[in-house]
Design brief:
Layout (H helix, E strand, L loop, with lengths): L1 H21 L21 E2 L2 E2 L1 H14 L3 H10 L8 H40 L1 H19 L4 E2 L6 E2 L6 H20 L4 H9 L3 H34 L11 H31 L4 H18 L5 H32 L4 H32 L6 H16 L8 H9 L3 H15 L4 H36 L19 H7 L70 H17 L20
Antiparallel strand pairs: 1-2, 3-4
Helix pairs in contact: 4-11, 4-12, 4-13, 4-14, 4-16, 5-6, 6-9, 6-15, 7-9, 8-9, 8-10, 9-10, 9-11, 9-15, 10-12, 11-12, 11-15, 13-14, 13-16
Length: 602
């Protein structure tokens, strides 16, 4: 019993000692209320807990509990700071400003390009007939004046067999093509074609119109090559007279091309005329919606600077062609209503609707293309300067091509088929009888000549301003390449012509110095019939092995090494040409309507 009784007080003392060691206090075992919850990390001051910290933690625990009122309060009072991502929002603002500048810059380019096409189109009606008459007069009066050898003012090469200058030969060929195609168009009945198209269903006409647009692009791309081949075959230096027979098949191909392209444009005009004369205007609405489908096919694709340049040229050509088609539709409708001016006011709303839809589609398309591809609006000034450079360079004494041909290559606009069709429609719509009618026709022709001259003067002045702003004046005096890339040197030497004046610093180089840039084959000073194998390469003194490859230089400034053989130079030229096609920073002056840029043509 004593042991049992003795063990009680000792056990109590042991438990007290254990509590002291563990840091327990007498009130720790007191049951706590539900509102006050003890935490192990409470602040203690002079042996007592900080009740403010307890309440603060209690409040945090209450705030962590989900509550709809608390969520709404947080949503209404939460804040954020945009300056933490200043660069991102500044870039977004610049994109908005770029989209706002696109309509103005695009329309500047479109207006300039429209007047360029108008100048090339008026040239066919005004100056081309006069140039053809002067060339024929020179050809017919040449026997009376005696045969005089034509001497090139640049290379002093005489060619007594040439009766006409190359430009005069091209003018005569253009005139013959126009006359033959106009006479062939008389066998095509416009009224029969109109009623044949009108009898088709709306869906068929919509499909036909889309097919005609694709065919027009294909005809334009291949047709300019046919015409260029004809001009070069007729004017290239020939060793034998029988070599001139090759002009005949090229001329026949050119005549058939212009005739077929004119019929294609006539079908387009007839389809548009049917859409204007439909009762419910459903076909016109479908044809206008076709422009908005173009946005879907263009906007959501990757575009480079050169691709956008091609698309801009295509839009300029398309807009000008549509204006001419609308003029043909108005002439045909006015003829059917005996030139009643009241019917013109019926046609004008539809005409303005078509034009407005075309402008709206172009603005939306270009705005989103520049936005998605991060292209600035200043690029349209570069495009305008490139078009102006073509105009200024064609006015030089040593120009390589006519201005209308340069516009055709750059934009894909060939004025000959459109001019043949317009002459056919005007002559069938207007009856010219009597002296008064011929007098009015003469006055109209003089008015067109005046318009052409004024337009050319204004365009030339504006072009000089644009070229100066773009700092492209030095390129006007550069010697153009005499060979296409990838061609054999023998063909280049056989058909090359001197295009630089004798006082040009390029002509004063030594024979061992390279006389061509990266895109042309070397042309040594030898006879035109000399084969490349007979031209020995310049002697080399270095026998060391080839040095390791160095970083690639800029293709625009690369020139073939004088110590390389002709075969090596040719390989370097071909490799450089492929590199130029691959690089996205190709010069805009080398890009025309049908040049592949970035593995695509737009």
């Amino acid at each position: 019993m004593a042991d049992l009784l003795g063990t009680g007080p000792s056990d109590e003392k042991e438990t007290e000692n254990e509590d002291k060691k563990e840091g327990k206090r007498p009130w720790d075992d007191i049951p706590k209320s539900e509102k006050v919850v003890r935490t192990p990390d409470l602040a203690e001051t002079l042996g007592f807990y900080d009740m403010n910290a307890v309440r603060r933690e209690q409040r945090e625990r209450e705030n962590s509990d989900p509550s709809l009122a608390r969520f709404l309060c947080a949503e209404l009072t939460r804040g954020y700071f945009l300056e933490h991502n200043e660069a991102k929002y500044t870039e977004r603002r610049e994109r908005v400003y770029t989209c706002m500048r696109i309509p103005r810059e695009l329309e500047k380019l479109m207006i300039f390009g429209f007047f360029l096409c108008l100048d090339a189109f008026l040239y066919v009606f005004t100056l081309l007939p006069l140039r053809v008459l002067l060339a024929l007069l020179h050809l017919f009066t040449l026997p009376c004046c005696g045969l005089r050898a034509n001497v090139c003012p640049y290379c002093n090469r005489s060619s007594g067999s040439l009766l006409l200058q190359p430009a005069q030969v091209c003018d005569i060929l253009k005139g013959l093509i126009m006359v033959l195609c106009y006479s062939m168009m008389h066998y095509v009945d416009y009224s029969m074609m109109y009623h044949l198209i009108r009898g088709q269903s709306v869906i068929k006409l919509y499909i036909i119109y889309n097919m005609l647009e694709v065919a027009d692009r294909l005809f334009s791309s291949f047709g300019q090559d046919i015409l260029d081949a004809l001009y070069w075959t007729a004017t290239e230096p020939k060793e034998r007279k029988r070599d001139s027979i090759g002009v005949i098949p090229h001329f026949i191909m050119a005549v058939f091309y212009v005739f077929l392209h004119a019929i294609l444009i006539m079908v387009q005009a007839s389809t548009l005329n049917v859409a204007f004369n439909s009762h419910n205007k459903s076909l016109l609405t479908i044809m206008m919606s076709n422009n908005f489908v173009e946005i879907k096919g263009s906007v959501f694709k990757k575009f480079e600077k050169n691709n956008l340049f091609q698309m801009s040229n295509s839009d300029i050509k398309e807009r000008f062609t549509n204006y001419v088609l609308l003029l043909i539709v108005c002439l045909r409708n006015m003829e059917q209503f005996s030139w009643n001016p009241d019917h013109l006011w019926v046609l004008l709303p539809d005409v303005f609707m078509v034009i407005a839809s075309e402008i709206a589609v172009d603005i939306i398309k270009h705005a989103f293309i520049t936005k998605f591809n991060e292209i600035t609006a200043d690029v349209y000034s570069e495009y305008r300067a490139s078009l102006a450079f073509d105009l200024v360079s064609s006015r030089q004494k040593n120009a390589c091509t006519d201005y209308s041909d340069s516009v055709a290559r750059r934009m894909g606009f060939i004025p000959l088929p459109l001019a043949v069709l317009l002459i056919r429609v005007v002559m069938s719509s207007v009856n010219v009888q009597g002296a008064l009618s011929y007098s009015c026709l003469l006055l109209f022709y003089l008015g067109m000549v005046t318009l052409k001259v004024l337009n050319s003067i204004v365009l030339l002045g504006k072009s000089c301003v644009y070229v100066k702003r773009a700092n492209m004046e030095d390129k006007l005096f550069e010697r153009p390449s005499t060979a296409a890339p990838g061609k054999t040197p023998s063909r280049t030497r056989k058909t090359s012509r001197c295009t630089a004046p004798s006082g040009d610093p390029w002509s004063e180089r030594s024979p061992s110095s390279p006389s061509c840039t990266f895109t042309a084959q070397p042309t040594p000073t030898a006879s035109p019939t000399l084969r490349p194998e007979t031209v020995p390469p310049p002697p080399t003194t270095s026998t060391t092995p080839a040095s390791p490859p160095i970083p690639e230089p800029d293709p625009d400034t690369l020139t073939p090494s004088p110590s390389a053989t002709p075969e090596q130079k040719e390989e370097e030229g071909m490799e450089g040409t492929e590199l130029k096609h691959r690089t996205p920073k190709k010069d805009l002056l080398d890009v025309d309507r049908f040049t592949i840029c970035g593995n695509r043509i737009d």
